[in-house]
Amino acid sequence: MKKIIEFLHRLKDWVESFAQRPYALWALFFVAFVESSFFPIPPDVLLIALCVGNPRRSFVYAIVCTAGSVAGAFLGYYIGYAFFETIGQRIVEFYGFHDQFEKVLLLYRENAWTAILLAGFTPIPYKVFTIAAGFKETIDLGTLALASFVGRSVRFFLVGGLLYFFGPKMKYYLDTHLEKLTLALGVLFVLGILAVKFVF
Q1: Which residues have a Cβ under 8 Å from the Cβ of 181 and sit 6 or more positions away?
Q2: Where are the domains of the chain?
């Protein structure tokens, strides 16, 4: 376990280092893309580093990160649809989320839109949701694309917005409390949707 944690820390530092490269935007898109299907490090790591380096471009970085993540969701869907037994199941088991995978499938049967929307905020890796979406065609691609776009853009624009308005001093807070913050925002977002449905 210690070696795995050390490896993930090194991987995180490696991803962060792309902020200093001339192709940083492409790296951000790529990291967001692969994180949606198999990569363990969230794109927020590189997104935060880029926004700290150039806060004025924070929203540009958020757009690129969202685009990469939503595009990557289709790869995750395809893995779940065509290669679940050979690749998808191994990815789920690698992260130790076999039980959560079953819960995600149940959520999809109850309300696919809300499940994917929350996927952008929950500590459960987003790749588990995208692979589950393609598994036996649990949900359609249109729902995956639209809900992913809303959920992921809210998450990444929250990060970009905080760094745009408050600058580098937000970096430590985001590094340590990002998952809690985005999860709380996601719950409030869904509660708002449910409240609108209840009222109207």
Answers
A1: 158, 174
A2: 2-199
Q: Are 4 and 33 in contact (CB under 8 A)?
A: no
What are 117-139's pLDDT values in tens digits? 877 776 678 898 999 999 988 88
Q: Which of 79, 187, 67, 96 is nearest to 132 (CA)?
A: 79
- Rounded distance between C-alpha atoms, residue 46 and residue 35, angstroms: 12
Interior/surface letters 110-146, b for 16+ CB within 10 angstroms, e for the rest = eebbbbbbbbbbbebbbbbbbbbbbbeebbeeebbbe
Give the count of beta carbons closer than 10 Å to the beta carbon of residue 181: 17
Cα–Cα distance, 2 to 23 (Å, whole number)? 32
Distinct helix (H) and strand (E) counts, the chain? 9, 0
- Residues 34-75 have pLDDT tens digits of 999 999 888 988 998 899 888 999 999 999 999 999 999 999
Q: What is the pLDDT of residue 198?
A: 46
**Cβ-contact 171, 48 below 8 angstroms:** yes
Please give the Cα distance from 160 to 156 (Å, whole number).
Answer: 6
Q: What is the 3-state secondary structure (H, E, C) of 78-125?
A: HHHHHCHHHHHHHHHHHCCCHHHHHHHHHHHHHHHHHHHHHHCCCCCC
- Contact, 134 vs 77, CB < 8 A? yes
CA proximity to 153, closest of 122, 180, 123, 121: 121
